[in-house]
Automatic annotation (TrEMBL):
N6-(pyridoxal phosphate)lysine sites (modified residues): K258
Name assigned to this protein: Tyrosine phenol-lyase
Any one biological process term the GO annotation gives: tyrosine metabolic process
Catalytic activity entry: L-tyrosine + H2O = phenol + pyruvate + NH4(+)
Lineage: Bacteria, Bacillati, Bacillota, Bacilli, Bacillales
Quaternary structure note: Homotetramer.
Source species: Mesobacillus foraminis
Length: 466
């Protein structure tokens, strides 16, 4: 018999959750324009919107807050954060930012010229937005298997080297300032990149003078999958695997709000001295002094501690295990999800879940709204709404994956909460043909998924049961 395991922590503080009636949830959903991003937190029962900034901090992190040095320049807390990044990730230079997109902004401004191309293993919303705002075109060079949600492939995040070669042949290496490698790939379902692929991509790019920059937001989860799935790494620690991963890059952007186990903050890291000097100049313009970069000293202390905690093998095994616990329940009941189950979330395949809806009826957005209406569980859309519009044609970008992301915050919920979420998804799956589509009634010009508003194409989001 397989022995069950428990969380590698105990709970010291609790927070009461909202328990709204269905009528109250319906009113909250209408007020939010059927956009789960616009629902008030006080109206949410179980919040699976994102794992960004929603982690529970440890006792040592809370203690570290009291050590915060709030000096405007040369903060001791900054020195501790800098040391943690160098110890765990191995980069030479580190610059703090208020969060990950601050690092994306600086990197994009410094590296990109108008007319450049930035290849990557599937887009991410804010990353691509910064690249495009600075005049580049994003090119997806992820392996084809990543676009098939039913396929069991151990490393769906891998770069297709042939696609990269074809792009370089077409536009020239001088038009590619860097390749952006996400570890793991959020939009593909939290899928990892293999060490072999990272190594091959790095050596190929260096032979052509192209930098490799990681989107390292969920890098610890990627390291854990390498330990599980790649031959030769099964007996290595997550910490050692992580160090090797980063050796196949020239730098990274990091949102500390995920794997670093804090509620705010990020950094830009690199090995190049010249790029570092230029980055320091822009940090002052957009973020703050290079010794705080938009973060308070106490936040830098908490992040430094969180970085060390994140590579604990017991912690990351539980973190991945809880995501699988939710996902396996849905698989067992025939619910279509992205497979294999990813590192930070379970992704519902909204196309298969709601096959009666056209893509222009925003099935993932409708399903996320229906989930909140059914149970008060908040999830988020990752499909045509998130993909935005083509800059040249003005038409909707139509990604092959139309997903609803059930994102698990770190160290926040128990498996009982996962059971509640699973029950709600299963209930909706049983009456899936009663769920109606949505129409967009307000569309922001950029990153529309945050603030867009919708209304049902019919009188009700979910048809009344007869």
């Amino acid at each position: 018999m397989e022995r069950r395991s428990a969380e590698p922590f105990k709970i010291k503080t609790v927070e009461a959750l909202a328990m709204l009636s269905r009528q109250e949830r319906e009113e909250a959903l209408k007020k939010a324009g059927y956009n789960t991003f616009l629902i008030d937190s006080s109206d949410v029962y179980i919040d699976l919107l994102t794992d960004s900034g929603t982690s529970a901090m440890s006792d040592r992190q809370w203690g570290a807050l009291m050590m915060g040095d709030e000096a405007y320049a040369g903060s001791k807390s900054w020195k501790r954060l800098e040391k943690a990044v160098r110890d765990v990730y191995g980069y030479k230079h580190v610059l703090p930012t208020h969060q990950g997109r601050g690092a994306e902004n600086i990197l994009s401004q410094l590296k990109i010229k108008h007319g450049d191309y930035v290849p990557g293993n599937m887009y991410f919303t804010t990353t691509r937005a910064h690249q495009e705002l600075n005049g580049a075109s994003f090119v997806d060079i992820i392996i084809d298997e990543a676009h098939d949600p039913t396929l069991e492939h151990p490393f769906k995040g891998n770069i297709d080297l042939k696609k990269l070669e074809n792009l370089i042949y077409e536009v020239g290496a001088e038009k590619i300032p860097y390749i952006c490698v996400a570890v793991t790939v959020n939009m593909a379902g939290g899928q990892p990149v293999s060490m072999k692929n990272l190594r091959e991509v790095y050596h190929f790019c260096k032979s052509l003078g192209i930098d490799v920059m990681f989107d390292a937001t969920r890098c610890v989860e990627n390291a854990y999958f390498i330990k599980e799935r790649e031959k030769g790494y099964e007996n290595k620690s997550v910490s050692n695997i992580l160090k090797e991963m980063f050796s196949y890059s020239d730098g990274c952007t990091m949102s500390g709000k995920k794997d670093c186990l804090v509620n705010i903050g990020g950094f830009l890291a690199m090995n190049d001295d010249e790029l570092y000097a230029r980055s320091r100049e822009l940090v002052v313009v957009y973020e703050g002094m290079p010794s705080y970069g938009g973060m308070a000293g106490r936040d830098m202390e908490a992040m430094a501690q969180g970085i060390y905690e994140s590579v604990d093998d017991h912690y990351i095994a539980h973190r991945i295990g809880q995501v699988r616990y939710l996902g396996q329940q849905l698989i067992d009941q025939g619910v279509p999800i992205v497979r294999p189950i990813g590192g930070h979330a379970v992704y519902l395949d909204a196309k298969e879940f709601l096959p009666h809806l056209q893509l222009e009826e925003f099935p993932a957005q409708a399903l996320a709204a229906a989930l909140y209406l059914d149970s008060g569980v908040r999830a988020m859309e990752r499909g045509i709404v998130s993909a935005g519009r083509d800059q040249k044609t003005g038409q909707h970008n139509k990604p092959k994956l139309e997903l609803v992301r059930l994102t698990i915050p770190r160290r926040v919920y128990t498996n009982n909460h996962m059971d509640v979420a699973a029950d709600s998804v299963l209930s909706l799956f049983q009456k899936r043909h009663a769920i109606n589509g949505l129409k967009m009634v307000y569309e922001p010009p950029a990153l529309r998924f945050f603030n867009a508003r919708f209304s049902p194409v019919k009188s009700k989001l979910i048809n009344e049961e007869t």
